[in-house]
Design a protein that fits this description.
It is a single chain. Helix content is 76%, strand content 0%. It is built from six helices and no strands.
């Protein structure tokens, strides 16, 4: 566990990045949520977790464009598979997340929030427009990270 002094020292050194990167995440999410609309807030929660990784941990493997976009594609596919089977809802949800985890690890596109995308697909029965919106959101966040990569710092 980090000592309180090291936490305070890190904050004093990076406080402006904490504020700026949090505001950048808020701006990106505002645009995405305005596009998604209120009816897809479960999907937006997975994208919110992606925003955390992209803006708080931009140098991590999970923040790479391949992982962000690939992970959400895997999440959509895993969730869609369990929309087509006749199992109890709770089992469909659990298996969709399990399949998403398995596929992300097997395909080397690990992005933890994409497991939430798989769950959101099962819960919301995501349509083609939501599929496009999820991928557009992942692309927007990935591009933010790419273009701001020289300015963003790992805050975690």
């Amino acid at each position: 566990m980090k000592s309180e002094n090291s936490i305070q020292a890190k904050f004093r050194k990076l406080w402006i990045y904490y504020i700026l990167q949090s505001l950048l995440a808020a701006a990106a999410l505002l645009i995405i949520i305005l596009i998604l609309g209120r009816e897809r807030m479960v999907v937006a929660s997975a994208i919110g977790a992606t925003a955390f990784i992209v803006f708080a941990m931009p140098k991590s493997a999970s923040a790479k464009t391949r992982n962000v976009i690939g992970g959400h594609i895997v999440g959509i596919i895993a969730g869609s598979i369990f929309l087509t089977v006749a199992l109890p809802f709770s089992i469909e949800c659990a298996l969709a997340v399990a399949l998403a985890i398995f596929l992300m690890v097997a395909m080397d596109v690990e992005h933890p929030p994409a497991a939430g995308t798989a769950l959101a697909v099962v819960i919301n029965e995501v349509s083609l427009d939501a599929f496009v919106t999820i991928l557009a959101s992942a692309l927007i966040l990935s591009q933010c990270r790419y273009y701001l990569r020289h300015y963003l710092k790992d805050l975690v």
